[in-house]
């Protein structure tokens, strides 16, 4: 039988791990804000594909690298226009501000073709990159760290993109334990859009990739010691930003607006994250397989 003291330590450790992980809590497309479903809770209408676990996706060949842990189709689709800002607000496992602060952010898109993205199976989709962001300044903090205050990561839809149905995929890669193979933590999330306008911009065939398929666990931007040489150039995994994308950078928060940039520009404004009612919702916890096994012992 597990002693009460040992069980208390295990439960405390589990809560800390859940707190350190997280999901896409909300997204603002243009002027509309959509709240994401709590992982593994009963879904409600939204444009964010719901995941079922706050834990990171581990391994570059993991099928969940596509849109997140067992991501499910969302019921709604956001209306957007070329040049709109999409503000991704990530939260931790307790619905507070994002915790991790080391690693890049990248954004991809894929066409859903003629069908509505609410019924589009993305498992074999072809993705193109529209944004990548690393450190704010050479040797300085990563742009991801700006979200520790609750600020969103703001990404601009390409101003010349062809109209149609698209998934936009935002990805955080946490590198705090990436010194060993398989240590990198991937947090992808997908949002369903219909984009209007009269643009003609599309990616070329060699700019399209599969996810998983675009990364390797030994890529220099995935198997990396992010602390030993902070002045070293970061090598983003995956393809380059598609050539048709103009100003292929991201806005992260007002905090970084005045800071010079090394790999991208940073500007924009913070968005209100979510209503008081949503913040006060009870959040389910996800225990590890080890914890579940221990708790079932007599």
Automatic annotation (TrEMBL):
<dbReference type="Pfam" id="PF03443">
    <property type="entry name" value="AA9"/>
</dbReference>
<feature type="signal peptide">
    <location>
        <begin position="1"/>
        <end position="20"/>
    </location>
</feature>
<dbReference type="InterPro" id="IPR049892">
    <property type="entry name" value="AA9"/>
</dbReference>
<dbReference type="GO" id="GO:0016787">
    <property type="term" value="F:hydrolase activity"/>
</dbReference>
<comment type="function">
    <text>Lytic polysaccharide monooxygenase (LMPO) that depolymerizes crystalline and amorphous polysaccharides via the oxidation of scissile alpha- or beta-(1-4)-glycosidic bonds, yielding C1 and/or C4 oxidation products. Catalysis by LPMOs requires the reduction of the active-site copper from Cu(II) to Cu(I) by a reducing agent and H(2)O(2) or O(2) as a cosubstrate.</text>
</comment>
<keyword id="KW-0119">Carbohydrate metabolism</keyword>
<keyword id="KW-0732">Signal</keyword>
<keyword id="KW-1015">Disulfide bond</keyword>
<keyword id="KW-0378">Hydrolase</keyword>
<feature type="region of interest" description="Disordered">
    <location>
        <begin position="253"/>
        <end position="277"/>
    </location>
</feature>
<keyword id="KW-0136">Cellulose degradation</keyword>
<feature type="compositionally biased region" description="Low complexity">
    <location>
        <begin position="253"/>
        <end position="267"/>
    </location>
</feature>
<feature type="domain" description="Auxiliary Activity family 9 catalytic">
    <location>
        <begin position="21"/>
        <end position="231"/>
    </location>
</feature>
<keyword id="KW-0964">Secreted</keyword>
<protein>
    <recommendedName>
        <fullName>AA9 family lytic polysaccharide monooxygenase</fullName>
        <ecNumber>1.14.99.56</ecNumber>
    </recommendedName>
</protein>
<keyword id="KW-0624">Polysaccharide degradation</keyword>
<dbReference type="InterPro" id="IPR005103">
    <property type="entry name" value="AA9_LPMO"/>
</dbReference>
């Amino acid at each position: 039988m597990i002693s009460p003291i040992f069980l208390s330590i295990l439960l405390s450790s589990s809560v800390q791990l859940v707190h350190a992980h997280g999901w896409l809590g909300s997204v603002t497309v243009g002027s509309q804000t959509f709240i994401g479903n709590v992982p593994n809770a009963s879904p409600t209408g939204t444009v964010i594909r719901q995941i079922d676990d706050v834990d990171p996706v581990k391994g570059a060949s993991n099928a969940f690298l596509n849109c997140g842990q067992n991501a499910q189709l969302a019921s709604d689709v956001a209306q957007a226009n070329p040049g709109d800002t999409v503000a991704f607000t990530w939260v931790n496992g307790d619905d507070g501000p994002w915790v991790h602060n080391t690693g890049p952010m990248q954004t991809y898109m894929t066409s859903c073709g003629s069908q509505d993205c609410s019924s589009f199976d993305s498992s074999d989709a072809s993705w193109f990159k529209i944004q990548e962001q690393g450190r704010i300044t050479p040797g300085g903090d990563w742009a991801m760290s700006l979200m520790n205050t609750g600020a969103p990561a703001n990404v601009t839809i390409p101003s010349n993109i062809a109209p149609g149905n698209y998934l936009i995929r935002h990805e955080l890669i946490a590198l705090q334990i990436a010194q060993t193979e398989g240590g990198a933590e991937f947090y992808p999330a997908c949002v369903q859009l219909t984009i209007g306008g009269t643009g003609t911009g599309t990616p070329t065939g060699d700019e399209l990739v599969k996810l998983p398929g675009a990364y390797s666990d030994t890529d220099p931007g995935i198997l990396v010691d992010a602390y030993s040489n902070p002045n070293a150039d970061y090598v983003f995994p995956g393809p380059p930003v598609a050539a048709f994308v103009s100003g292929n950078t991201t806005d992260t928060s007002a905090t970084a607006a005045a800071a010079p940039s090394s790999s991208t520009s940073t500007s924009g404004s913070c968005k209100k994250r979510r209503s008081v009612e949503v913040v006060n919702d009870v959040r389910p916890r996800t225990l590890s397989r080890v914890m579940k096994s221990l708790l079932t012992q007599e």
